[in-house]
Amino acid sequence: MSAAEKKAQQEKWFGAETIVAAERAVRRELKDPDSAQFKDVRANYTEVFGVVACGRVNAKNGFSGYTGFRRFVSSGKSVILEGRDNFADAWSGACS
């Protein structure tokens, strides 16, 4: 099986459940989880990270104002939101 075939297979088998789990995990990180708006969310497979969800989220902050869309990377168990120290490496390694 080629690398491209393996990538497609993994994304097909695990993509939808990874996205659902990732959105749950992202919500847990937010001040107002019910206000979360997701955009451009997709599953991506890499040899290093396995299947992860990459996308953007907008949510209300503590002052009830929306913060603007921020990118995220999530395995469904852990989340790295844009603005954290290791975000650039995670995004380029898992989502590019």
TrEMBL record:
Task: Report which superkingdom the organism of origin falls in.
Answer: Bacteria
> What is the recorded name of this protein?
Uncharacterized protein
Organism the protein comes from: Xanthomonas hortorum pv. carotae
